[in-house]
Amino acid sequence: MRTVEDCPICCADRVTIVVALDDADRSARFHDFSQAKYGGLLDGWLDDVPPIVLRCWQCGHCWYKHQPSAEQLGQMYAAGRRLLPEVKLSREPSAPMNDEMARLRKLMRQSAKRPSLLDYGSGYGRWARAAMMEGFEVTAYEPVVTRGGEAEDPGFELVHDLAELQGRRFNLINLEQVLEHVPDPLTVLLQIRYLCLPAAVIRITVPNILRAPEGRAVWELWPFDGISPHIMAPFEHLHGFTPTSLLLVANRAGMARLKEPVLWRHYPLDQIRRLVGAWVPRLGKTSVLVRPT
């Protein structure tokens, strides 16, 4: 277990407790989530890893003050089960995934005839499949060994150990809904830099804590509403990003947004939302395209 007192994104020390297991109702809902999702595993962590969410006054980032160890997180994901098993999950990419990969392929057209892509934290491989369909040479990294390999041959290279990527470099690295799950997002992005070819592009997306599915009741419904995982479900999402905090952590890792003309040409709607988000942060997007500087 590690304790993170100051903001892990901007290092500010002006933080506040947003929510904790401070009443019987929240404690009961935590127990319900632990039972439904992990067979009661999290109940045994309460003394060692008390769930307390902090928020930074400077960048708006939210995070768990006490974070499980890598071993504990491994146990948690191994014990995980779906809350709605009757809902069949698609393993094929959606139309928006295909559209995004088509845009990225156009963006990369001068980088290589067949640009290489690393899908970092690939889950069940839907984004990797979308990239493969668009002509990328795809490698998928997924640390949870039970994910991504349902098919005997998924059609792309699948690795479960970062050591297998040592010495490899890629034109494009995709981090779709990854950084909110890791204890130290900055360290992950610093590692990503060593996997980049010159002029590589890194695509990063995370949930926007300011646009939580729970709406204005986001903290009233924490840690579980009895149906769906919370945007800060313990301890699946260890971080809650804002548009500001996402760009800050990328900048701290030595990455900068792509130049404005490129973004306006390929992502005009995202650019409009970014401009609007400067005035109304909850309308901004927690997704960026960056390059190592």
* Nearest-integer average pLDDT: 91
Radius of gyration: 19 Å
CATH class wording of the largest domain = Alpha Beta
Count of alpha and pi helical runs: 8
Order of helices and strands: EEHEEEHHEHEEEHEEHEHHE
Number of domains: 2
> Alpha-carbon distance between the termini?
33 Å
Residues in helix, %: 25-40%
Explain what the structure shows.
This protein has helices at 24-38, 70-79, 95-107, 126-133, 185-193, 243-252, 260-266, 268-279; strands at residues 2-3, 15-20, 52-56, 62-64, 66-67, 116-120, 137-141, 157-159, 170-176, 196-205, 239-240, 255-257, 287-292. The chain is an alpha/beta fold and 293 residues long. It has two domains: 2-87 and 212-239, no CATH class; 95-210 and 240-292, 3-Layer(aba) Sandwich (Rossmann fold). Strands 8-7-6-9-10-13-12 form a seven-stranded mixed beta sheet, with helices on both faces. A four-stranded antiparallel beta sheet has the order 2-3-4-11, with no helix packed on it. A two-stranded antiparallel sheet has the order 1-5. The longest helix is centred in the N-terminal third of the chain and has 15 residues, at 24-38. The chain starts with a strand and ends with a strand. The model has no long low-confidence stretch (mean pLDDT 91).
Short description:
The protein is α/β, with parallel strands linked by helices and 293 residues long.
Give the helix/strand layout.
Blueprint: E1 2-3, E2 15-20, H1 24-38, E3 52-56, E4 62-64, E5 66-67, H2 70-79, H3 95-107, E6 116-120, H4 126-133, E7 137-141, E8 157-159, E9 170-176, H5 185-193, E10 196-205, E11 239-240, H6 243-252, E12 255-257, H7 260-266, H8 268-279, E13 287-292
Parallel strand pairs: 6-7, 6-9, 7-8, 9-10
Antiparallel strand pairs: 1-5, 2-3, 3-4, 4-11, 10-13, 12-13
Helix pairs in contact: 3-4, 7-8
